[in-house]
Amino acid sequence: MAKKIVVNPRYEHLREYIQSVPENFDSLGEVLEARRNVLRQHTVDGVTLVIKSFRRIYLPNRIRYSFFYPSKAQRAFDYGNVLLDKGFNTPAPIAYIEVKRYGLISQSYFISEYLDFQPLQSVVKPASESVSEWIADFVKYTYRLHESNIYHVDYTLGNVLFKKKANGYEFALVDNNRMRFGPVSLRKGILNLVSLAVSVVDSTVMAKQYALLRQTDATTSIGLLYHFKVVGSRKTQVRLFFKRLVKELRFCVWTSLLMMQSLYWEISPAYLE
């Protein structure tokens, strides 16, 4: 097993601890999340860390990340530093680790400093006639991201953190391994807003305010918003249909195999007599 470890110079005093993360991950601190990826929180030498273990890497991506493209952990580390350099809040990147077996990446970890913010999804209102109070600040924040040539591909309410202050809302980004850097068109900007699971009322207000900031026609922005919502809904329906189809086919295959096995055991003694 070979390990590649890159540590932010500011946290060099934690190197010995960081080196031990792959071997000790399952016993470190407490679990914050254990879905696709596993996040653990642990305080070391007065620094509260969030350690993210990316889910199992399948063979195609093991080859891709080993030779052709940065791993998710490296991109989270690098893109986090880009955000900070451009003046946007994100948990400070501390280190990333890549574990290789037989020359291919088999596991990767991203370590950042804990940020005392909450996911934006915790303040989202259900569909209603009222408009969420965080909308205006959030649209300005999104516009500023796009004007800075930053496009977060996983721009969801779970990946945007917030803290409410006396003068409004402050935001931060997490799960930064999928980002694009370059000019953000109106279509891409609206598509970013569509990825947020908010009410029709809130999303319409977002599109209007975003258009105002970009000095473009609000009707065009709202039209794009609803177009992407319809397209997204259709894509979701198609995806769910094929998932159900695959499950049913898998069930049929397993049922057929069990029936064949049962039949085999029933008739095989007759041939042995």
Structural write-up:
- The protein has 273 residues and is of the alpha+beta class.
- It has 2 domains: 2-113, Phosphorylase Kinase, domain 1 (2-Layer Sandwich); 118-227, Transferase(Phosphotransferase), domain 1.
- The protein is built from 8 helices and 11 strands.
- It has helices spanning 15-19, 21-24, 59-67, 72-85, 135-147, 186-194, 200-214, 218-272; strands at 2-7, 30-34, 38-44, 47-53, 93-101, 104-113, 118-119, 150-152, 160-165, 168-173, 179-181.
- Helix 6 (186-194) packs antiparallel against helix 7 and helix 7 (200-214) crosses helix 8 (218-272).
Would you kindly provide a brief summary of this structure?
With 273 residues, this protein is α+β, with helices and mostly antiparallel strands. It contains 8 helices and 11 strands.
Specify the number of helices.
8
Number of domains: 2
Which topology of the largest domain does CATH recognise? Phosphorylase Kinase, domain 1
CATH architecture name of the largest domain: 2-Layer Sandwich
Series of secondary-structure elements, N-terminal to C-terminal: EHHEEEHHEEEHEEEEHHH
Question: Ranges with pLDDT <50 over ≥5 residues?
Answer: none
Any idea what the radius of gyration is?
A: 24 Å
Strand portion, in percent? 15-25%
The secondary structure category is alpha+beta
Total E-strand runs: 11
- Side-by-side strand order of the widest sheet: 1-5-6-4-3-2
Task: Summarize the topology.
Elements: E1 2-7, H1 15-19, H2 21-24, E2 30-34, E3 38-44, E4 47-53, H3 59-67, H4 72-85, E5 93-101, E6 104-113, E7 118-119, H5 135-147, E8 150-152, E9 160-165, E10 168-173, E11 179-181, H6 186-194, H7 200-214, H8 218-272
Antiparallel strand pairs: 1-5, 2-3, 3-4, 4-6, 5-6, 7-9, 8-11, 9-10
Helix pairs in contact: 5-7, 6-7, 6-8, 7-8
